[in-house]
Amino acid sequence: MLELKNISFSAQNESGTREILKDIDLVINERFVAITGPNGGGKSTLAKIIAGIYTPTSGQILLDGEDITDLSVTDRARKGISFAFQQPVRFKGITVKDLITLAAGRPIGIGEACSYLSEVGLCARDYIDREINSSLSGGEVKRIEIATVLARETKISVFDEPEAGIDLWSFSNLIAVFEKMHEKINGSILIISHQERILNIADKIVVIADGRVSAVGDRETILPELLEGRGPCRMLSNKL
Amino acid sequence: MDQIQKQLLEQVADLHEVPSGAYNIRANGSSAGRNTTANIDIVTREDRDGINIIIKPFTKRESVHIPVILSESGVQDMVYNDFYIGEGAEVTIVAGCGIHNAGDRESRHDGIHTFHVGKNAKVKYVEKHYGQGDGNGKNIMNPTTVVEIEEGGYLEMETVQIKGVDSTRRTTTARLGDGATLIIHEKIMTHGRQSAETDFTVDMDGEGCHTSLVSRSVAKEESRQVFRSNIRGNNRCTGHSECDAIIMDHALVSAIPEITAAHLDASLIHEAAIGKIAGEQLIKLMTLGLTEQEAEEQIVNGFLK
Known about the structure:
The structure holds two protein chains of two kinds.
Chain A: E1 2-13, E2 16-28, E3 32-36, H1 43-51, E4 58-63, E5 66-67, H2 73-79, E6 81-84, H3 96-104, H4 110-119, H5 124-127, H6 138-152, E7 156-160, H7 168-184, E8 188-192, H8 196-199, E9 204-209, E10 212-218, H9 219-228, H10 234-239
Parallel strand pairs in A: 3-8, 3-9, 6-7, 7-8
Antiparallel strand pairs in A: 1-2, 1-4, 4-5, 9-10
Helix pairs in contact in A: 3-6, 4-6
Chain B: H1 3-13, E1 22-27, E2 30-35, E3 40-44, E4 50-55, E5 60-70, E6 76-85, E7 90-100, E8 107-117, E9 122-132, E10 139-149, E11 154-163, E12 167-176, E13 181-190, E14 195-204, E15 209-219, E16 224-233, E17 237-247, E18 252-261, E19 266-275, H2 279-286, H3 292-304
Parallel strand pairs in B: 1-5, 4-6, 5-7, 6-8, 7-9, 8-10, 9-11, 10-12, 11-13, 12-14, 13-15, 14-16, 15-17, 16-18, 17-19
Antiparallel strand pairs in B: 1-2, 3-4
Helix pairs in contact in B: 2-3
């Protein structure tokens, strides 16, 4: 269980200090939680605070009751938090197999590495020895990124807009990946998404707008409001 | 051969035992073993220190190992090795130099390797440099490579210098005939106060010849690196050089590329990039549970792999 208590985050820019997150209170205990809301609302910032990439200005983060607010990215990863970046980084010289092995945290065979790739819709044989460099397309690195999180099999898996940069055909497969994870996982999947089809399989939906939680509840309650353009967030319904 | 010498041999030539095929092992300035085959002859030179390696035309799938090891402090070694690769031969040549310097005196190996690659011959040349030692004596290596490739010949050269060499100046000059190909992959890592300079000059004289020079390096701590390349397109040809460096700590890296076209159909490209490890790369690996230092090692190892 992941608990966020009164999380606030401010960043400096040219015009002074800007408050990006204001007093976020959330409990993530369900198997599949979707975070949605307009662009610039603070969703990605919140995900990075969970992974430890950003340190909150104030507030507390608890993982299974343990305060992890001051833990580094590495320590949080070791305690069971995984993070899939919205824009995955490339590495000259590091192969897909290397990265998946690092993600698994133990030596794994070709067969196992391939199984993670197949799950994200990549023909494993064609990719396993390729370097994660600029010869791979945006959609390919994105799927490899998701495969690294699958290989970690951790309690908390955070995905920042997994659908961004993935074509429509692959998107159907991506939904299948998350449905399968949903069945298997012994913990929580937390997905930031604008996609109705992802929100559709969520147990709980959190809407973040203007740095605050503007709505939270089960799918049956929140989704109709979003789709009808009533409720907390009109910008989002336009996107959907 | 003692333990230190065996260990050096393993580092520079991946050899655990005496190699199969032709070999010549040079230890502390003199010969420590030699084997020739029906197709590959190794002859001691009479004009100066060194050997001639003569590979008969159409020799297929054979290899030559010529490692050099220096395990006594203060050895100053200078050799001239000439390779004559006959028409249509296909061979792998593994050279390399390992220095173990436990004393206070400077150990130095300068090698001048000259390759005469015959018509349509295909050669893979691997050269590794490695230094170790717990003394204050410096390990110095200055390899010079001279390459002549005849019509349709092919030379692929892979050079690696990862550890323990305090100062190196690598000079490679090449002249390519019609349809000849020269591929060079260089990998260098320097640390401490080491310095490494590489200098490539390729004369593309033959019609339809091709070269690709790729250097990847990592400079750590206070070390300094200089990369110079000059590709001269004197005929219809394609040439490409690429220098890609990661800079860390207080190191200094210079890339000085030069391409000269003296023919309308010479097509030459140079790419150079120097930069530190991207913060996003470190963070990605840290989200997989690696510490910052482990992440840095993985990135450097991958880059130099």
